[in-house]
């Protein structure tokens, strides 16, 4: 399934009560981690409305991105604010045009509360709500991001999630912690996966690893994105007790998977018609041939990902009957889950 995440505001939008806290920066980091968690599930593709930290699209363009790309689920990520510093809790807003989205909204809200309350001891669910306005005699969603997202019938679920109050010292402190964002991302992804029946990818066992020396300013999440994996896999593989604590010069091992090796002959599985999840469809003639696996990684041996799946480069076409190489190579990346070896 396709999901659009919208980190609210710009990089320095809405400062919190703790120096250096900005809502726009923290929810941008949350979106990156949530994307990693969600794309650990089969067939899941996540689009983030802010391509870089400095981006600040209009409200219409944020929700419009989900409508344009055909997402089924849109979530705008926020932390809340109030003039009263005692105000606290999690709020979820859903579209008035999507009454069936109430259940998932409540499940998400309750899950976020459960994980936050373990450390804040004050967080509670303020409600799963709609907020509307009357426009030329028509009731519509008040929030522009929700309103613009549900212009497409494909967007069945559209939410704003307020992850506590950054004007509350306790909840601001929680959202200022990287491990807290990881905990929230993990629990939100688990709720979404369970609700939609998503299965974790079975990546098998690594056949080896490459070594990466940590550079100044590196984070485990940034290294994971660079090598097409997740911070959690790197933490587990390297037995890091505290994934937030890495140092310059430290060697991080990047697991390498090679279920399909260069030179193997593979065929397209019968039940697929795209090269990878969310990718372009292939023509029917593509299934008429076998292919030589030309590459299983990039020039540095790093796994290549498309649509959240590891991919193999399909090279020379092979005649199914004679086994002879036929014409020029196809040179298209295909999901390893979409091809199989020819015995």
Query: What fold name stands as the CATH topology of the largest domain?
Result: Aminopeptidase
Q: How many beta-strand runs?
A: 17
**Percent strand:** 25-35%
**What is the C-alpha radius of gyration, as a whole number of Å?**
22 Å
Mean pLDDT: 91
Which CATH class of the largest domain applies here? Alpha Beta
Euclidean distance between termini CA atoms: 32 Å
Largest sheet: 7 strands, antiparallel
- Helix share bin: 25-40%
Task: Determine the CATH superfamily of the largest domain.
Answer: Zn-dependent exopeptidases
Structural class: alpha+beta
Number of helices: 8
- CATH structural architecture of the largest domain: 3-Layer(aba) Sandwich
Global morphology: globular
Domain module tally: 3
H and E order: EHEHEEHEEEHEHHEHHEEEEEEEE
> Which ranges are low-confidence, i.e. pLDDT below 50, for 5 or more consecutive residues?
none
Topology:
Elements: E1 2-7, H1 23-38, E2 45-48, H2 59-69, E3 73-80, E4 90-94, H3 102-120, E5 125-129, E6 132-135, E7 138-141, H4 144-149, E8 157-165, H5 169-175, H6 178-196, E9 208-213, H7 220-226, H8 231-237, E10 251-256, E11 265-268, E12 289-295, E13 304-306, E14 309-319, E15 325-326, E16 332-335, E17 339-341
Parallel strand pairs: 1-2, 1-3, 3-8, 4-5
Antiparallel strand pairs: 4-8, 6-7, 9-10, 11-12, 11-17, 12-14, 13-14, 14-15, 14-16
Helix pairs in contact: 1-6, 3-6, 7-8
């Amino acid at each position: 399934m396709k999901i659009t995440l919208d980190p609210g505001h710009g990089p320095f939008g809405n400062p919190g009560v703790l120096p250096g806290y900005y809502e726009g920066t923290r929810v941008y980091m949350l979106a990156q981690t949530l994307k990693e968690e969600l794309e650990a599930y089969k067939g899941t593709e996540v689009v983030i409305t802010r391509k870089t930290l400095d981006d600040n699209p209009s409200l219409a363009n944020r929700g419009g991105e989900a409508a344009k790309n055909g997402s089924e689920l849109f979530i705008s990520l926020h932390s809340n604010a109030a003039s009263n510093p005692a105000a606290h809790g999690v709020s979820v807003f859903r579209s008035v045009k999507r009454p069936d989205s109430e259940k998932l909204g409540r499940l998400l809200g309750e899950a976020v509360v459960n994980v936050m309350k373990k450390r804040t001891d004050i967080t509670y669910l303020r409600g799963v709500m709609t907020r509307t306005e009357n426009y030329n005699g028509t009731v519509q969603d008040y929030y522009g991001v929700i309103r613009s997202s549900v212009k497409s019938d494909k967007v069945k679920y559209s939410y704003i999630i307020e992850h506590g109050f950054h004007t509350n010292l306790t909840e601001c402190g929680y959202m200022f912690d990287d491990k807290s964002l990881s905990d929230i991302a993990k629990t939100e992804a688990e709720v979404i996966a369970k609700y939609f029946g998503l299965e974790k990818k079975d990546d098998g066992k690594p056949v080896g690893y490459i070594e990466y020396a940590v550079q100044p300013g590196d984070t485990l999440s940034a290294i994971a994105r660079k090598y097409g994996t997740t911070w959690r896999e790197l933490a587990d593989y390297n037995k890091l007790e505290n994934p937030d604590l890495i140092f310059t010069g430290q060697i991080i091992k990047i697991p390498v998977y090679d279920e399909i090796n260069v030179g193997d002959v593979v065929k397209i599985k019968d039940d697929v018609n795209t090269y990878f999840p969310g990718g372009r469809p292939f023509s029917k003639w593509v299934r008429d041939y076998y292919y030589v696996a030309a590459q299983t990684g990039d020039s540095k041996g790093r796994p290549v990902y498309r649509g959240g799946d590891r991919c193999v480069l399909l090279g020379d076409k092979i005649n199914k009957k004679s086994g002879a190489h036929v014409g020029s190579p196809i040179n298209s990346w295909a999901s390893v889950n979409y091809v199989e070896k020819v015995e």
